[in-house]
Design brief:
Chain A is an alpha/beta fold. Chain A contains 16 helices and eleven strands. Chain B has a domain of 43 residues: Histone, subunit A (Orthogonal Bundle), CATH 1.10.20. The chains are: A alpha/beta (492), B mainly alpha (96).
Chain lengths: 492, 96
């Protein structure tokens, strides 16, 4: 098989070739290296690559394992022993992880080969990957546009066939939104489904790691390995892990889907709205029942989210003090100067904004009005979902109100950027699971087409259900088969 | 509640041990005032009968066996240190 054909495969298509030894793990790595050399100058999805190590792992890979010989890209906020873990920040620019995150441990034990670290908004704070202190990643469908964020490098790499699959993290939509903008599948597991040990913490009550893949089946394959309890993360629940690939069987006849009326608001791009309405009709034609539903506290989700996420971030990022690891300012006058200049020089603007916002809402006199209030509103948002899931099996909505926006368009306006999460961050507040899947394209004025994403939200620990519904949609449409035609010279 | 536009960015930055320039102070002041103005929404819903949710999944008392296991080696722990010597972190002077 020629290299370009090989990298176009999904994980589910690659596995039988590896198992039947029609290709070797080494050939897969070489094909990927060639593909990345071709597309990476255009999209800039990766922060670091280690093919020498990947080839060593490939040589000893056991293809009988669930992910034997499957290379994976990892968002550069997840620790992979011996590889850089920069969080796209200056403060961790020279940091190398000294242990594996539990998700990485699980993936490696299943035979996967983590070979490269992908770009992100610094410390996962952003919705466009423009907050990376290293470089701007470009959307493979239109290089003048953002890939979304914060897992923008992971999404762009998968969309450009520069990765078979990738691992991202989602605190307020950071897997689902870039997946939508790049036209790939992205799953945010329920809070507590996947261990957070070894993820550089942004907001500990919201963060979850999950897969970005070419197909729903691939997301199931990866979740099978990633999920499960972990003695190193007490918030990771002791719940059995079903076989998520087995859950993909069957149709959606009789399945009840709720369409939250608060999500079909003004401000949704016309083409996005049309694609979602078409998807709803498609689900009906497959035998699903789609009913209107209300999540009355939706309009408070963004405010609640940014108070809570920033508060937790300000506490989590206090650890970056230039003492035991990371950047340290030169010649500090005293300890205060050491801390404040290290952090001044080491953090980018968005991270500073969130530290200040978080410190403010936690400070004496404002705690009750902002932080405590946001936590109470969080309870109301959770209740909305509990009540909705008593009536329906899953919720359906757009993932992002707009397709990929031009690089630079929202970068100078933090509030506009925060509103990009309008349909995704309630799921993190409520701890439920959600998945993005491609459901159409928007045409731009300059003739490019941009992917549109559909979001399915499911009950806590009901990933099997949303994967099954997603699979039924994907297998009866061909959106997921379309790939961007990157303006590059294909190598033969 | 105080007017959010009055947010004292310089004071908050000191609390957060984060030096900021005059330019950053002015920029953040304006941007964060807008964000906090937006957050005023949170005062609208009735939360008088509602408990605060610190976590999405309320779980308590998670136990595991108290078994000894190896941690980081000295070399690993020091491998990312900005300054080190004699198997120790070199830190900025703490006492006068």
């Amino acid at each position: 098989m020629k290299a370009p054909d090989l990298t176009a495969l999904s994980i589910g298509e690659l596995q039988p070739l590896l198992r039947k030894r029609e290709v070797s793990a080494r050939e897969v790595i070489e094909a990927l290296r060639t593909r990345i050399a071709t597309v990476e100058p255009k999209i800039e999805a990766y922060l670091s690559l280690d093919f020498d190590d990947a080839l060593k792992q490939a040589e000893k890979s056991d293809v009988s394992l669930p992910l034997g010989g499957v290379p994976l890209a990892i968002k550069d906020i997840i620790s992979v022993a011996g590889q850089p873990c920069t969080c796209a920040s200056k403060i961790l620019r020279n940091y190398r992880a000294v242990f594996d995150a539990t998700v990485i441990h699980n993936l490696k034990a299943a035979g996967a080969i983590p070979f490269g670290k992908t770009n992100l908004d610094e410390f996962a704070m952003g919705a466009s990957t423009e907050n990376s202190s290293v470089k701007v990643t470009r959307n493979p469908w239109d290089l003048s546009r953002v890939p979304g964020g914060s897992s923008g490098g992971s999404a762009a790499a998968v969309a450009a066939d520069a990765a078979f699959g990738a691992i991202g993290t989602d605190t307020g939509g950071s897997i689902r939104q870039p997946a939508a903008l790049c036209g790939v599948v992205g799953l945010k597991p329920s809070y507590g489904r996947v261990s957070r040990y070894g993820l550089v913490a942004f907001a500990s009550s919201l963060d979850q790691a999950g897969p970005l893949t070419k197909t729903v089946r691939d997301a199931s394959i990866l979740l099978n390995v990633m999920a499960g309890p972990d003695p190193r993360d007490s918030t990771c629940l002791n719940e059995k892990v079903p076989d998520y690939t087995a859950a993909l069987k069957g149709n959606v006849r009789g399945v009840r889907l709720g369409l939250p009326k608060e999500y079909m608001i003004e401000g949704i791009d016309k083409q996005v709205r049309a694609a979602i309405e078409k998807a709803v009709e498609h689900f009906r034609s497959l035998g699903a029942e789609v009913v209107d539903i209300s999540l009355p506290h939706t309009e408070y989700a963004i405010a609640s989210y940014y108070m809570i996420a920033s508060a937790e971030a300000s506490a989590n990022l206090a650890r970056f003090d230039g003492v035991r690891y990371g950047y340290r300012a030169e010649n500090p006058r005293d300890l205060f100067d050491h801390y404040s200049r290290t952090r001044q020089e080491g953090f980018g603007p968005e991270v500073k904004r969130r530290i200040i916002l978080g410190t403010y809402v936690l400070s004496s006199g404002y705690y009750e009005a902002y932080y405590a209030r946001a936590q109470k509103v969080r309870t109301l948002i959770r209740r909305d979902f509990t009540e909705a899931f008593a009536k329906v099996d899953a919720l359906i909505s757009p993932t992002s109100p707009v397709p990929a926006f031009p690089i630079g368009e929202r970068h100078s306006d933090p509030l506009q950027m925060y509103l990009a999460d309008v349909f995704t961050n309630a799921a993190n507040l409520a701890g439920i699971c959600g998945i993005n899947l491609p459901c159409g394209f928007a045409q731009t004025e300059n003739g490019t087409q941009l992917p549109i994403g559909l979001q399915l939200l499911g009950r806590p620990f009901d990933e099997g259900r949303i994967l099954q519904i997603a699979q039924a949609y994907e297998q009866s449409t061909d959106w997921h088969k379309q790939r961007p035609s990157l303006p590059i010279t294909e190598m033969s | 509640m105080a007017d959010p536009v009055q947010i004292d960015v310089a004071h908050i930055a000191t609390l957060a041990r984060l030096h900021i320039t005059e330019e950053e102070r002015n920029l953040f002041q304006t941007q964060l005032a807008r964000v906090l103005e937006y957050a005023e929404k949170l005062q609208e819903p009735d939360t008088s009968q509602v408990d605060a949710a610190a976590h999405a999944v309320p779980i308590h008392n998670v136990f595991r066996e108290d078994e000894a296991r190896s941690g980081l080696s000295v070399a690993d722990a020091l491998s990312n240190a900005p300054h080190q010597a004699n198997d120790l972190f070199i830190v900025t002077k703490v006492v006068e």
